[in-house]
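Table 4 source record.
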Amino acid sequence: MCASPWCPTRPRPHEIYLVNVGDSRAYWITERHCQSLTVDNDVASREVRTGRSFYRSALQRSDAGSLTQALGTRSGDNMQVSVQRLVLDEDGLLLLCSDGLSDNGQVELAWADAVAPAMSGQIGLDQAAQTWVDLANERNGHDNVSVVVNRCRVSPEYPVLMAGEAIDEATASPAESLTAASEALQASLPTDVPEPVPSRRLGAVLRALVSILLILGLGGLLGFLAFRRFRGDGPPSLPPNGVQEGELQLPPPGQPSPGETAPGGSTDAPFSQPDAESGAEPGTEPEANRELLAPQGLERPAEGGDGAAEPGGAAVDPP
C-alpha cells in the first residue's frame, strides 16, 4: 500500500532509494521505455517468486490479488520491506501510483502518450499527474487512485565531490551535536580507565606444558634403559679363568701341547707333567689317562718292566 522514494541531495544526487510495501508500484519512464521498479506483495507474486506457478497461471486464482503484507495489517516487526537503489543515468519520470492505476496494465499501455508532453515541458507535472488520474478513473474506476510524478534530469555538469570547506561546514562539531541527555550520559562515564592487567593464564599454560614435556622425556629414558636391560644388550661377561668362549688356550713356553711325545721318550706313551693336585711323579700317568687309553686296544706296560707292550697284549723285548 506504500511506495516511497528518497533522493539524497549530497554527496550522491544521482541516486534514488525506493522503499516498497504492499501493491503500490513505482515506474521509471523515459522517452524510449517504461520499466516497473517494484513487485507487488500479493499471492500471485508470491507464487511466482517461490517457483510454484507462472504469473499468468497465478492470476487465475481467486485470491491472486490478496495482499501478503501491507501497512496497518500486521506489526512492523514482522514486515519485510523491499529497499532498492536506482542510479539515474538519463532524463526520465519517476511515477508512483496505487493499484487503481496500475491494474490491468494501464501504465504499460498509455505511458508513450502521457510522457512525451511532460518530458518536453509542454505540460507541468501537476497536469501530467491529473492525466494519469483521469485515465485510471476512466478504465479502472473500481478502486481508489493515487499518483505522484517526479521529473529527474541529468545535469550537464560533471559531479564534483564536496570541497574541504563545505565538508567542515556540513559536519557539526561533537559539542554542537550533543543533546542534554547525551551530555549527561557523557558526564556519567568514568574518565579514569584502569590499565589492563596482564593475564596469568598464559604463564600457567606454559609451565604446565614444560612440566608435561619433562615427565614424558624422563619416562622415555627410563623405558629405554629397561628395554636394553631386558634384551641383554649390556657388556659381555668374561669366564672366571679370564678366557673367552671359543678362544684357544696355548700351553706355557717349554711345555708340549696335548698329544705331543716327550723328548727322548716312547711314542706309545704321551708325555705328561707331574700333577700337583694328584701328587703323581714325573713319568707316570694318572689313572684317568689309563682308562682313556684302554678302550683303544693299548695296554700300558707294567711299572718297572723293560719291555714295551704291543697291540694285542704281546710283550716285545727291547733291542
